[in-house]
Amino acid sequence: MQLTFTGSASANRGTESFPPTSAAFSTFQGTLSLPLQNGRRLSAQEAQALAQLQVAQSNLAKTRLDLAFRASDSYLGVLRARGAEQIAQQTLDQAQRQVADAQKRVDAGDLAQSEVLKAQVPEAQARVALSRAKSSVRVAEESLNSLVRVDLSTIPTVAEVGTLPPLDLTLDRAHAEARLRSPDLLAADANVAAAQAALAQARRSRDLDLTLQASHSHTTDPTTYANLSTLNLSFNFPLTDGGVAKRQVNQAVSLLKQAQAARDIALQQLDLSVEQAYLEVQTDMASLDSTRETLKIAEDSYQKATQAYNAGLTTTRDVLDAGVALAQARNDVNSAIYDLALARAKLDQVTGTEPKT
Predict the structure, then answer these.
(1) What is the pLDDT of residues 36-83, one digit of tens each?
(2) Is 129 exposed, middle or buried (0-12, 13-18, 19+ CB in 10 A)?
(3) How far, in Å, CA of 101 to CA of 314, rounded?
(4) Torsion angles phi and psi, residue 159, rounded to 5
(5) Of the four, 6, 31, 113, 241, which is 20 to 30 A from 256 by CA?
């Protein structure tokens, strides 16, 4: 409701004809104007504003989810790099033990000096790998620092990823939750609602405008009413606007169709993203189980190769080959753990699930 008061005051001097008389008088007038609102037009404007607010809220939620995934990616990158560094250190320790064992057997006359040289090659490679792993850790920590604005050098440790709980979410349920919470889909729905409201508003651009006015005037003019009160209802109806309103309606219809098409595309992309993220989790779970089995086999093979070598039944090469396979299996498990954790974070992102604090 917009109530407006207007007033005026004037001083006047006039002459009456019969008989000729000159007189001075004053006039005071006040008017209250109340436009009678078009309820349907106001409803359309309100719906459009609420839809625009929903779009803004959805964009904020999308930004939060994107930031959460980036934080998870960087955090898991640090853990992945630290795990690789530990494995590289274990591989170097393992290579150094092999060199020392080979030297002992050479000193005892059981092996030729060339066996020591063979063992020193993977030792040198392990030193290089460890140096690279340390550099990767530093790069990953700096990346996380730049995102969370926390200097990790002041933090003793970054907590390891524990055992991930089983995925208690079916694919159908993932689709349902995504359609319920996805910021992209919510924003697309809000854009459709805003376009519908804009169309309704455009269709009422030529509606009748009504204004209720109440006025009162007081004058000392002897030739008219000393006090006059008036109640007036005025209306404004545009007879023609040169086709502007029609073009505005056509434009609003076009924008509505575009918004509806964008919503359909957003829904298709969301379903595809959910499908891909869910299958990625399933694949990474199977990959983790497989790499853990491979690690067990590699550990047994290395232990047996070492025992055979100590018993003089095999050469240094057999132990070195088993050590390489063991190091690779450890790296594969390390990567599989964090691939799965990152895939779970991606699934949370596409389903609109914010991480728990």
Answers:
(1) 887 888 888 888 899 999 999 999 999 999 999 998 899 899 999 999
(2) buried
(3) 13
(4) -60, 140
(5) 241
Tokens encoding 49 = 């504003």
Distance CA 173, CA 178 (A): 8
Tell me the three state secondary structure of residue 354: coil
Instruction: Judge whether 118 and 318 are in contact, CB under 8 Å.
Output: no
What three-state secondary structure class fits 153? helix
Beta bridge partners of 227: 218
Interior angle at CA 233, CA 227 and CA 235, nearest 5: 140
Domain ranges of the chain: 31-350
Of all helices (H) and strands (E), which one includes residue 86? Answer: helix 39-107
Residues 6+ apart with CB under 8 A from 69: 345, 346, 348, 349
Q: Could you tell me the pTM of the whole model? A: 0.75
Structure tokens at 56: 């803004």
Half-sphere exposure of 136 (CA within 13 A, CB side): 18
Alpha carbons 84 and 134: distance in angstroms, whole number: 9
3-state secondary structure of 231: strand
Domain 31-350: assigned CATH number:
1.20.1600.10
Burial 47-73 (b: 16+ CB within 10 A, else e): bbeebeebbeebeebbeebeebbbebb
Four-CA torsion 73, 74, 78, 79, nearest 10 degrees: -30
